[in-house]
Amino acid sequence: MLTDDEVRDLFSAYHDRELSPERTEAVRAALDASAPLQREYAAFGRMLDGLSAMAAAAEAPLSGASAPKAADAPKDAPPPDLLEGVQRRLQKRSGGRFYADGWSRLAGILPLELIATLVLIALVIAYAAMTMVSPHPAPAPAPAAPAAPSP
Amino acid sequence: MTLDVEAERALVERLRRRDEAAFNLFVRAYQAKVFSLVQRMLGNRAEAEDLAQEVFITVFRSIDSFRGDARLGTWLYRVAINHCKNRIKYLDRRVTRGHDALEDEGGKALTEGGPVMSRPDRPDESMQGAEMARVIERALGLLEEEHRALVVLRDLEGLSYEEIMTITGLPEGTVKSRLHRARAALREAIERGLGYKLPE
């Protein structure tokens, strides 16, 4: 039979279902036998429920018909410029060895699919421009040969 | 975002080559998790923004030390938790810890052991939703960093005991007993802040 203090020490593991079947049964029996212990365990569980609710609230998607505003974002949401900040620090601390060019920074901010699409469109435009506009103007049609003098 | 094992291995290989595009993807994939963890550990958004960046910089520099015997995300949590512990100690030394988070919302009384709020007429109604979250947040800030880490990892981030063992390097029995002590300490801090026992 477990003492009250031993049962208290097992509250966490019991709540998390981390005890062996024998231990679980022993804690359950101790709780059944003691109303004060039951109340203590209920209060303990209530606090853990509060933690779970807090975690769930932080992860809940924004609801509502209106567009979300920055002020509505969950307070645990990362700042939108976190990646840019990391890139700036890496560039500075590496003496410009990393993230030296704008392209590698942009690659993280814009989705790769979007960048690929933009590049593809640019290539198509360039190709069209090259095939439609010739670098050398077409020679003007030769003037008609003067009519041979009639005899 | 959770990568499968093969995708993760490929990403790690690219990170080891200091592939900037891969690193960008990595930051975008994990920034929410890292920031949430750091914010909960520090309880101060400005500090969390700064530290989250440092976590990723550490990964960029020391990805070679990732041996692959844990998932990349778990290793990242370990890096983040170590950064948090160091930052908390640093802030403690500067005696600035908690000022932003606690004093702004009347937490001074909590720090001194007094009630944050006047005792409500109906305690059962006082512990709902956002109010409960605020009380817990303040109380979390009062736990020592080891206890805070365990509560955050288990109860807020929802990690398994196994993941926590990997992150903290503690054996299973120690994780369980310390987590229990951490939760008990949190409960005491909450009750001290409220000025009454949690409703049963």
How does the SSE layout of this entry go?
The complex is a heterodimer of chains A (151) and B (200).
Chain A: H1 4-9, H2 11-15, H3 21-33, H4 35-59, H5 82-93, H6 102-109, H7 112-132
Chain B: H1 5-16, H2 20-42, H3 45-62, H4 72-93, H5 99-103, H6 107-111, H7 123-126, H8 129-140, H9 145-156, H10 161-168, H11 172-194
Helix pairs in contact in B: 2-3, 2-4, 3-4, 4-10, 8-11, 9-11
Provide key terms for this protein.
heterodimer, A: 151 residues, mainly alpha, 7 helices, rod-shaped, B: 200 residues, Rna Polymerase Sigma Factor, Chain: A, Arc Repressor Mutant, subunit A, 72% helix, globular
Please, could you describe this protein's structure?
The complex is a heterodimer of chains A (151) and B (200). By secondary structure, chain A is mostly helical. Chain A has 2 domains: 56 residues; 51 residues, no CATH class. In chain A, α3 packs across α4. Chain A is rod-shaped and about 115 Å long. Chain B has 200 residues and is an all-alpha fold. Chain B has 2 domains: 98 residues, Rna Polymerase Sigma Factor, Chain: A, CATH 1.10.1740; 91 residues, Arc Repressor Mutant, subunit A. In chain B, 72% of the residues lie in helices and 0% in strands. Chain B is built from 11 helices and no strands. In chain B, α3 crosses α4, α4 packs across α10 and α9 packs across α11. The radius of gyration of chain B is 19 Å and the shape is globular. The N and C termini of chain B lie far apart (38 Å). The chains are: A mainly alpha (151), B mainly alpha (200).
